[in-house]
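User: I'm putting together notes for a lab meeting next week and I want to include a structural view of one of the chains we've been expressing. I don't have a solved structure, so I'd like a prediction I can at least talk through. The sequence is below, exactly as it appears in our construct file.
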Amino acid sequence: MKFELTAKSIVSYIEDDVCVVSFADSTDAEPEKYLILSQALFDTGDDDEDISIEYGQDGDSATGGVQSACLGARSFAMKVDGATVGVSEFQIAIACPFGDGLREHLKMIFCKSPAKLTLA
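Assistant: Thanks for the context. Below is the predicted structure for the 120-residue chain, given as structure tokens.
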């Protein structure tokens, strides 16, 4: 199963040594569809390489299961383990501008993970 959305809002930041990247279908405080990725930037123990994922309308979440991701000029795609995450792929069409901050924050999120991040 594929999770798709058109991102009209992209936010990335670091807070309390956790890097967060979010894609949402609106700029509202409570978007209908969204994807949030996060990763602690400090040593937390055994699951350091696992990326936390929250998505959907109901806030489904998972830790780990990311296999690969690719950020393009107008898209973000991420393949995940369907049994762990509940979907097999995220396909996001990007309909808003983004800068180098997003690329840098995605690098931080994926730096501990065995999953490959491609920046196109």
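A couple of points you could mention at the meeting. The two ends are 25 Å apart (CA to CA). Residues 100-110 form the longest helix (11 residues).

User: Perfect, that's what I needed.
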